[in-house]
User: Fold this.
Amino acid sequence: MGPFPQPEGISGRTSTCHVVTHVHWDREWYRPFEAFRARLVELAEQICTELDHHRIGAFHLDGQTIVLADIAALRPDLADRLTAHARAGRLTMGPWHVLADNQLVSGENLIRNLLAARRWAAHSSLAGVGYSPDAFGHPADLPRILNGFGMDTALVWRGAPPQHARFRWRSPDGSEVFAVNQGYHEAEVLWPSLAQGDEDQRLSDFLTTEIKRLPDGPWLLMNGGDHLAPTDTAQNIHRADDQAAKHAVRLRESTLEDFFTAARAAAPDDLPVVTGELRAPGDRLTFILPGTLSARTYLKQANSAAQTLLERWAEPLVALHAPDDDTLRSELRHAWELLLRNAPHDSICGCSVDEVHRENAVRFDRVQEVGEHVINRALAASGIDTRLHGALPDRHAALAVVNPHAAPHTGPVTLDLLTAPGVFPSRLLDDAGFALTFESSPLGPETHFEADLDLLPDSQPAMRHRIRFLARDVPGLGRAVYTVDLAPEPSAAHAPQIDEDAHTLHTSTGHRLTAASDASLTLTLPDGTTLPGFGRLVDGGDRGDTYNYDPPAADQLISPVLRAARCVDSAVRSTLEIDAVLHIPTALTEDRAARDRTDTSVPLTLSVTSWHGDTPGTLDWDLRFDNTADDHRLRIHFPALEQATTWLADGHFSLIDRPVTDDLGPLPQLPGHEAVCGSAPVQSVAAIGSGTARIAVSAPGLPEVRAVTRGAGNPELVVTLLRAVGWLSRFDLTSRTTGAGPMLATPEAQCRGPQHFAFSTSVGRAVADDLDLAGFAAATRAPMRAWQLRPGTQGTPAGRAPRIRGGLMTTLKVAEDADGTILRLSNPTAEPVLTEIDTPGAVTRSRVRLDESPEAESEGPVGDTVLLRPFELLTLRLQGTTRSSR
Assistant:
């Protein structure tokens, strides 16, 4: 029955509506963070007073512990009062640290989020329900993530199938939660101050709707909403009890945990099963707001870079080389805290006022600063000193290439090399003394500055050179050391050669690229198959807001005009460079019905590179331009090689099949609805086609992807690069028939200024297998990096680190309790994968959950070979000698 006494006079009723009083708190949205936090402190004080005087029996302080941190920074005494109520069972927080948009961040980001909540709520009451009703859709792997933290229930809303009030939600691996589909904003039902005298009718309408959805109950009334201070729940329930009785319903002040216990007990055995992501079109006002996938893409790019820096570089390097360094571990935790504070949907989705996103950009910069410092200190612990201090090399320079992947890797490397003035790279030698081919371009003289705790500030004249080469078979989680011989004259053999006015590039693998008049490519495969329109850029108008794309009634779809093309060849790569110009309208017309007749010219530079000896069919793309137009959307198209009805993309830990659809469904006619959009959130890679006819695009930080029909031809993969809009929300759209937030101007969401997009494509055998496709995504998301070694120091090949063959490593980090190392392996495919695990020294491996606690039914120690089941995620605690020796 829970901790609450039963109201008098209703003991005979059996149908219960659980009233959970709560607040939904956006840290930043239509106000900047500090303006919201000032109100949060006021709300917290009122909550404590209501709880102290028993006017509220229990309160859910949203689904996030970050509110406690925000309050503690200003009012530690108030945070202590909240914690006391939590310990007494009157207040719950979490299970998250922040209520993240759980589609745009990585799976590991979500796991760090839940781990952070457990640190903040270590001595208080953390909700045991997967609370996420306001996320703009839900990823397929969320049930497995919740299971990994001991949760088998979820409160969801946006994107949940509206026909199901209760259902079993299943991840691709079979993990499952009992899901309740329920909106969170129902403050007006019981709050007389908002009801304007018609509270009886509001309650009656609510109960009528809920009984229709679920005739026998129990029901849930989330008594609260956005940024609202609750008051006197007990009295409000007492006042409404007679009206509830007319529906044969009793109102009961409750908690989420008590409600879920009752709901599960009442659920039939044959609940519907829903598998995969929740992005179903909703009922009235149940928007999934797909335009947030591409609003302010610079935020998505920055988030992808930051979480990759921490997940694939900083955490593994600390785990391997400095696991006992308390300072580095604390700095890593701080970097994650900064990154998590950018994860809420109003932040990373780009749908807040401009001041919010300026602060987001600064936070991302801070994550990069902390992460790079941690990386350099961990490298130093491993014997790689990256600080160039004192006289710069004039005869020999040393560099180290580091592989972030758990298997040996071959891939391109780019490094800026600093030398003394007047010398140039002449030879590149591997650690065995064999000469390698490389490319070298002088970038000019500069004055190099270095300083550190143990290095006096030092400025030296220098010459910068850009070195490119293909590093082969670098050990997994290890490094390879190279020597650059220097000479007084540059060598033409290492300089790239430019063929001006060459429109066709021939790759070393037999592929051919030809620039077309619209700056797209015609790709010719080795068997003679041609694919015109490969990488076709298309710009169209957008009269929408940060939440939804909205097509102008009279649109113009415009592609660039080719101005020039050239081929750049070196010993290691071939590049087709394209200059083009995009003539597009400057903005919408004043009535927002069409694109304006006044044009602006936007020059574009596009380079497409094929590396000699790299994976056949793989191309690296680099697009740059300065956006000088408003109210438009720029996308890039990749036609398929064959007809297809589905396309494949990576979620958090699983490859997800999605249907080929129309670009935008029928425009809604009823108030409070939105059009079905063909886009879907992609973590990094999308592919269409089967076997050797598959085409893949890996574009980390560009999550809005779709596969659309193209008349009678083959479908196309379409990636949104830029969406420029000027409003947080509008009430006059055709793709969404009401507002999704306040109508506030956001001129910086027009994304004026320099734009840079880097991504990769692969065609054919290299991505024909799903595991290879996932490997392609991992390689492009985290390419190998190189560092120049400090003169007078000598990097040595790394000792043995964990090596993995088969499955993919998603995590290598110091355990939260500092007892060993956490290694996580993934099989993102629908087929079992035999995985070899080689760990150095006397290391024991035990299975743990995602929260790093032991599995309840562990199969015992894990051997050297493991068969990863389809879509399985295996987390291991390694204990013993895990440090990589020098």
In short: The chain is about 20% helix and 30% strand. Confidence is low (pLDDT under 50) at residues 1-13. The longest helix spans residues 354-381.
